[in-house]
Amino acid sequence: MPQVIEGNLDARGMKFAIVVARFNAVVSDRLLEGALDALRRTNADLDSVDIVKVPGSWEIPLTVRALVSAGSHDAVIALGAVIRGGTPHFDYVAGQAASGIAQAGVDTGVPVAFGVLTADTMEQAIDRAGGKSGNKGFDAAMTAIEMASLLRKLGKAAR
User: Fold this and answer.
1) Catalytic-labelled residue, pool 12, 89, 153, 156
2) Which residues, at least 6 apart from 151, have a Cβ–Cβ distance to it below 8 Å?
């Protein structure tokens, strides 16, 4: 019978960082509330959560990289919202944010959960930040918790 290894959703004893963009704060503040709710529900000590605010989603990858390189967190949660406008700016910001955030985790072995919304309209973003489509900040935090737990079980935690 094969052995199944998976993380659990118990954040006790773990330290998290949340990087949240201030741009589109009406959305990102809701994502942050969702992430904190998930951490609270999974027994995280909120005194062991660092919230780092950055100007926008473009600045998230550099900040995530600095946090994961320091090695003081079990996982990092990246939150923000990029909303399509009438110029290609959306494509550059969304694409670089996604690839930079992913690369930071891959390069360091520290789980980085992606909670940066990409939406065509503000209404879509709000729906995904606590509206009718749930809260992707909550989902990102749950992913971070599970992955930190899994890596501990695999013996590959960053610390």
Assistant:
1) 89
2) 7, 109, 111, 157, 158
Kindly tell me if the per-residue pLDDT of 145 is higher than 50: yes
Could you tell me if residue 159 is inside a domain?
Answer: no
Examine the residue annotation and report whether 73 is marked as an active-site residue of this protein: no
Q: Per the domain annotation, does 81 fall within a domain? A: yes
Structurally, how many domains does the chain consist of? 1
For residue 69, is it within any domain? yes
- Token pair 């926008």 is found at 56
C-alpha closest to that of 125 among 78, 59, 77, 80: 80
Whether this prediction's pTM lies above 0.85 is answered by yes
Range of the domain at 113: 16-146
Which positions ≥6 away from 10 have C-beta within 8 Å?
Answer: 42, 43, 145, 149
